[in-house]
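okkk here we go again. third time trying to get the pyridoxal-5'-phosphate bound version out, last two times i messed up the smiles copy paste (missing a bracket lol). double checked this time i swear
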Amino acid sequence: MNANKNEPTSFHTFREDLENLTPNAGAEMLRYGWRKPDILSLGQGEGCVATPDFISDAAHAAMQKGRTFYAPVLGFPEVRQELSDYYHRIYNIDIPANRLFLTGSGTTAIHLALTSILDVNDEILALTPIWKNLLGAAEVSRAKVNQVSLEMKDNQWHLDLEKLFAAVTPKTKAILIVTPSNPTGWVMSHDEIKAVLEFARQKNIWIIADEVYGRIVYDGAHAPSFLEHALPDDKLYTVNSFSKSYAMTGWRLGWLVGPTYAEDVIRDIALYDNMGPASFIQLAGGAALKDGEHFIQEQLALWAKNRQTLIEFFAKHPQLDCPDISATFYAFFTHKNKPDCMAFCRELIDDVALSLAPGCAFGKSSRSYVRLCFACSEAKLAEALKRLEKVI
Ligand SMILES: Cc1ncc(COP(=O)(O)O)c(C=O)c1O
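finally!!
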């Protein structure tokens, strides 16, 4: 039979440019480690404490009350108001509920933000080292991703504002910043935030600030937030999540804060995405915001102990170099004689069954680093360090 002459004779099975997605070295290394039955993994960014009962109970109670139907796409009004109250209580800022959008994770919030602003061939400028999924999300949205790195000086990460601003091109649509940073633990200062906001206003570009680790600080109640300095109509999206602060990584719940004019656009996109997070999970998130402070402090007390253990460990091992960990639960370090992060991570898995994340997963500038997540029990960290010691 003759083929219909209007039918294409050949086409790609999958979207052609997906071939250009950069691989995720972190995910690859995790898979490599999982083959070993005795693997001890500090390669993933989560703790080992299960979600506290008061949050699980809230989800259960909501299910039992029949809160199992579709919810408004951007979240139940009462939970959006809970978020607004949270910003007032913790940050002393007033953000109305119509700028707060509940999402099916912090990752989803990143996708919604990027989808709402990116046209084909736009460029994104990412401040690296950075959590790889932000770069991957921009690539999936067909943006070209440029990277500019933090500087390492006197054992601390620094932002060179001139270098960041010089890397912006006429095609740059947005700057991606994670503060506090996964993986470095670097925290952007109030002055730097103000300078970047002012620059973005002048250039008419967006800022996407990922503040998922905003509460995981060892000094004060929270890290400086872009929301403390932005005007309500600044082109700013702030990404956040329940995953880390409330031990809810598996629940998939996050939020996005947008400018005054973003609600309709984000609603339209979310409607064609998965129509918002599950009803009872949103309500559990509301309970976390309302009653979660005690839990956050408990977690921070454990992580502060682990951080101190690591500071002492690195001081004893001059072949390892770990810049100051100002925030988050990550140690991002180098080994003087093992500059290839993939080889070092494989060696750790092969020889002592310890899985860490390779630095190249976080951008071009951190190929000699590895990341260790210390949001674990003291015993697990002690065992991990024993294993690490055998290899170094
Ligand atoms: C900087 C950053 N943003 C977002 C996320 C993802 O959050 P969620 O679990 O809500 O998707 C992570 C997880 O590691 C992260 O490190």
